[in-house]
Amino acid sequence: MTDQPTPQWKTLDKDLNRLTRLEEATMYASRPLVGVGISLVFVSLAAVAAAILTGGEAQSLAVVVAAAFGAYMALNIGANDVANNMGPAVGAKALSLLGAIAIAAVFETAGALIAGGDVVSTISKGIIDPAGLADSMVFVRAMMAALLAASIWVNIATWVGAPVSTTHSVVGGVMGAGIIAAGLGTVNWPTMGAIAASWVISPLLGGIIAAAMLAFIKWRVIYVEDRIAAARTWVPVLIGIMAAAFATYLSLKGLKKVVSIDFGSALLIGAVAGIVVGLISVPFIRRQSAGLENRVRSLKTLFRLPLVVSAALLSFAHGANDVANAVGPLAAIVYVQQSASVAGEVAIPLWVMVIGALGISFGLVLFGPKLIGMVGNQITKLNPMRAYCVALSAAVTVIAASWLGLPVSSTHIAVGGIFGVGFFREWHADRRARRVQRDRRPEPIPRQERARRKLVRRSHFMTIVAAWVITVPAAALLSAACFLLLRAIGF
């Protein structure tokens, strides 16, 4: 006869189980608060470091507050902008979320500290006439308002799940503060028109190039009789193109601090790198493809490593290029406080760049998974081949835009590439369905059913496009409000 548990133990077990569930629920609910707490500590430490490095002078209060704003901005860049580089690799399952965060944190920091620009334009992208902000106090107030407004807007966009351009956010912030400080006439409206045009040009270029690359892979590798043999021929070529694109991209965008390279030299560097890497990858792909079955699933293995490398290189280039733009207002405030004059371009102090680099890493680790998951999984389904096309299109589009002299956003290009891949898949699937339907002559698929079979989530598409369109005006309005508030409190 087995002993039955006494009633009091049953009651105790039930109570303990309830307490365990309550504890788990409490821990789950409090996880966001942990991130907020760590962020507040980082922002506070940035302010303290600025106070120490400025020697505790009376005029250093503006630098201390601006350092806190800059740290807040860096956190938001890590939470939002980096997802565009790592999202496709995570969505394609070439990288785990933890691995993507680790790689991005290392390469973003390395890009900012090793290859970050020596100087940055104080009036972001030349949209405001410096003569309109010649008074140093007005200039400092405008830069602080721009930095705070851009940070708030990127934070809001991250909260709603929309990847936006941090550079455009800073541009909008500078414009809004400049208008309040010096009037509408101080804005360089042709430059603003070019930036507005980039809202359309960037995603379209990224989407077209990504779709074209995917179409080529389907044509030459997937829809052939011997896929493995085709992959051994064409995958090294694609890897060589990737190497050429990224070598050119990094030469133009990521190595300004190390060496100044013109466009022709960057193309030559890219061509040499593409040929060398392409030839080296031939035996590597041959070994990797040995024994693989003649299936589409087998091809995904061959694209995983190139995709991981491309994600790391995108992060390095982003750290080198975009971080300087984001902390530019902070660097400008430091310069003005030290020299009591306004300059068109200023050097970026090392400690300012360190705040930017560390802030991006913290923001990525604490808040990045949300946007990485959305970009990688929720817009359209990605595999290594599709994600590879997105990464390659990002590099090629930036090169093409640099050649044409067009201001483009890396965020818009990367997300536009994902949309391009998704819409191409929709078109291709619909085309194949029509062909099968025509050959077999079954009952026609109703229009409502065809409309339901979408491979791109329209809700995300509309949210992201709307966020892109309103980024500059929203940041400008927020900046104007911040400028008026700072002036009202006598800062």
Structure description:
The chain has 491 residues and is an all-alpha fold. It contains 16 helices and two strands. Helix 4 (97-115) packs antiparallel against helix 12 and helix 10 (296-326) packs across helix 13 (384-404). It has one domain (34-488).
Features:
491 residues; mainly alpha; 16 helices; globular
Outline of the structure:
It contains 16 helices and two strands.
Outline the fold blueprint.
Layout: H1 7-53, H2 61-80, H3 83-91, H4 97-115, E1 119-121, H5 136-160, H6 166-182, H7 189-222, H8 227-254, H9 263-289, H10 296-326, H11 328-339, E2 345-347, H12 350-378, H13 384-404, H14 410-440, H15 447-452, H16 458-488
Antiparallel strand pairs: 1-2
What is the end-to-end distance? 82 Å
Uncertain stretches of 5 or more adjacent residues: none
Number of beta-strand segments: 2
Please indicate the percent range of residues in DSSP E strands (runs of 2 or more): under 5%
